[in-house]
Amino acid sequence: MTEPLNKDCFLEPHWRVIAQGFQTETWFNDGQAIGTGGIQNPQPIHLPTGNYYYRFASSNSPREAQLGGGWWLDYENYKKIETFAHQNGYSIRDAARLMLALPYAWTRVDLKIKALLAAPMKAYAGEGKAAQGARGGADKGTVWIPTQHLKIRQLYIPGLYIKSSRPREQLFEKVFSSQVMSL
Question: Which among 2, 20, 14 is positioned nearest to 71, based on CA atoms?
Fold first, then answer.
């Protein structure tokens, strides 16, 4: 098996902490474990190349946030959301928000990205946790809880985009051979 391009991320524990929904910047600055959302008990897995992966994003976010964001779904779990939407009269956007516990303050969920994985990668996988919405705005302090009767396995792919003061090629630019954006 070829080495995953993000293998080094699995040697650095802060990536697993991020997958668990903790805000590492806040935690590192004051020692408090503050977080919301994320994955319960994230487990590392290898992602098969040649498969499509899906992500919900905001159309007003920069490209690196849209394609380089770490939160993804495999086909099977994306299909669960799509089927739930059709069977229950929801838009795909509302079904994704409900099933993935996506507060309004986090994302508009108005963009679906479908990307073909062309290079070996690893991800953290597991069921999502509850997420605290913003105190004001559309969330009004709502705690978003993923659907309990239909579990969705989420993926957190670390290292797709790493902010840097110097321009550099990002991993998301190397690993996906085609991206389709819609919704």
Answer: 20
pTM: 0.90
What is the identity of the amino acid at 75?
Y
Supply the range of the domain harboring residue 69: 7-182
Q: How far apart are CA 104 and CA 54, in angstroms?
A: 19
Q: What is the pLDDT of residues 3-17, one digit of tens each?
A: 999 999 999 998 999
Q: Residue 81 domain-assigned?
A: yes
Give domain status of residue 1, yes or no: no
pLDDT tens-digit readout, 111-159: 999 999 999 999 999 999 998 888 889 989 888 889 889 999 999 999 9
With respect to residue 157, please indicate whether it lies within any of the assigned structural domains: yes
Cβ proximity of 18 and 24 under 8 Å: yes
Instruction: Indicate the number of domains in the chain.
Output: 1
